[in-house]
Design brief:
Oligomer: single chain
Largest sheet: 6 strands, mixed
Distance between the termini: 20 Å
Strand order of the largest sheet: 3-4-5-2-1-6
Shape: globular
Helix content: 25-40%
Number of helices: 4
Number of strands: 6
């Protein structure tokens, strides 16, 4: 599965669990460690975990497993590292505070639109 397919699967899985403001950021040429960020948010820690869990479950079905996971216990910001694609699932306040979209302002940003 290529980078775009993994990113789309992550977006779809996040959308199924009512993640808010799902975007992708093209990190090629900006970072050497990954090609794409998928960023989304939710109002509560419970929902942040549910989004992360659904992403893991949906990608596992296709044999795609994360390399590393951080932040699950606190669920303010869960990071799922799939190598070329890194998913960032934030509580809304944490997303506003860390503002990855501004931090990596040179990246091309695309909003995910669920057309399924």
């Amino acid at each position: 599965m290529d980078t775009n397919e993994v990113a789309l699967k992550i977006c779809k899985a996040a959308g199924k669990t009512k993640a808010g403001n799902i975007i992708t950021m093209d990190m090629r040429g900006i970072m050497f460690s990954t090609d794409c960020f998928v960023i989304c948010n939710a109002a509560t820690a419970t929902q942040v975990r549910a989004i992360a869990d659904n992403i893991e479950e949906e990608l596992d079905k296709d044999g795609v497993h994360f390399n590393h996971r951080e932040g699950y216990r606190e669920a303010e910001w869960i990071l799922l590292d799939y190598g070329d694609v890194v998913a960032h699932i934030f509580k809304t306040e944490s997303r506003e505070y860390y503002a990855l979209e501004k931090l990596w302002g040179d990246a091309e940003i695309k909003a995910y639109e669920d057309n399924a």
